[in-house]
Amino acid sequence: MKRARHEVTEPEDADARRTIRPVICYPVETLPRPDLSAYQAVRDGWDKVDEVLVPPREASCFHVPAGSFFRIVSIEGPQVGDLDLWSADDVNERFFSGKTRALHGTHLSTGDQLWSCLPYLRPMATITHDTLDWYGFDAFGGSVHDVIGTRCDPYTHKLLSGHEYHHCCHSNLTRALSERLGRSKEDVEPAVHDVLNVFMCTGFTRDTGQYFMKASPVRPGDYLEFFAEIDLLGALSACPGGDCSSEHSSDAAVCHPLLVEVYRPKAPPAGWISPPRNGYSRRHED
C-alpha cells in the first residue's frame, strides 16, 4: 500500500508534480457503442428459456446463446456473486476484467460491456439493466459491480490465515467448470479468471489505497441484466462472504442463493451482429 515515506525528503517542486492534471489512459470517444434502445426494444415479449439456481457458497454454470439476455437475480437476501465468462466455443477466450476496467472504470453499470482477453478482445456481453444503478458512489468512494477485486481464493486464504478453505469463489468456480466440461479440476483451474463482482460494494480507502468491501445494498428482486454478444458459457459463485459486510472466505457469514435467468427475444436487436474477434494482424513487428 502506498504511504508517505517520511524518511525521504520531498523535492522543492513536490507540490508542482502532484498538481499535474491526469490524462485518461484510454479515451473511449472512438469506442463502438451498443445501441441500447435497440436492445431495450426486444425485451418486450421475450421468452424465459432457462434458469439456474446457484446455492450459497457454491457455483453453477450456465449457457447463453448470442443474441439472448441473462439476469443475475437476488432472490432471498443480500448476496454478492462472482461472475466468470468464457466463449462457449473456446474457454481460452475469457472475460478480461483489467481491460474492461481500463475502458469503463472500476465499477460497471448499464451500457458498459464486458471484454474478452487478448488476442480476442471483443465485447462478450453488454449490461442492459441494473436495478442498483441508483447507488452511484457513496461517501467512502464505494460502488457496486466492481472489476477491481479478483475473487476470493484458497491460496490467499492459506497465506493469510494458515488454514485451508474450499468454498472460496475460485474453488467454487473451478468445481463448477470441471463438472460442466467433464474435465479434472486441475485441468480447468487455469481457465478460472478474475471476475465481475456482482452486487458487491467496494472501493479503495483514501489514505492507504487499500481495497475495501462493505455491506451490499442489494435486496431480493434486484438484478443485473446482460445481453450476450457472443455464445457464452458462464459460471457464477454465490460468495461465502454473503453480503460482504464483515468477512469472506468463511462459513460464518449469512449466505443466500442467487438465480440466473436466460431470456430469448423474438428477434435480435435491429442492426445487431455478433462481434468478430479483434482484427489486429498479430504480426508484432519490430
How many strand segments? 13
In terms of quaternary structure, the protein is single chain
Globally, the shape reads: globular
Our measurement of the CA-to-CA distance between the termini, rounded to an integer number of angstroms, reads 37 Å
Major sheet summary line? 7 strands, antiparallel
Report Rg.
Answer: 20 Å
Whole-number mean pLDDT: 96
Which residues sit in consecutive blocks of at least 5 with pLDDT less than 50? Answer: none
Q: Give the count of structural domains.
A: 1
Helix share bin: 10-25%
Beta-strand proportion: 25-35%
Q: Helical stretch count?
A: 6
Order of helices and strands: HHEEEEEHEEEHHHEEEEE
Q: Structural class per helix/strand content?
A: alpha+beta
Walk me through the structure.
The protein has about 290 residues and is of the alpha+beta class. The chain has one domain. Helices cover about 15% and strands about 30% of the residues. It is built from six helices and 13 strands. The protein has helices spanning about 15-20, 35-40, 95-105, 155-160, 170-180, 185-190, and strands at about 45-55, 60-65, 70-75, 80-85, 90-95, 115, 125-130, 145, 195-205, 210-215, 225-230, 230-240, 260-265. Strands 2, 4, 5, 8, 9, 10 and 12 form a seven-stranded antiparallel sheet that branches. It has a six-stranded antiparallel sheet with strand order 1-13-3-11-7-6. A hairpin with a 7-residue loop joins strand 6 (about 115) and strand 7. The longest helix is centred in the middle third of the chain and has 13 residues, at about 170-180. It is globular and about 65 Å long.
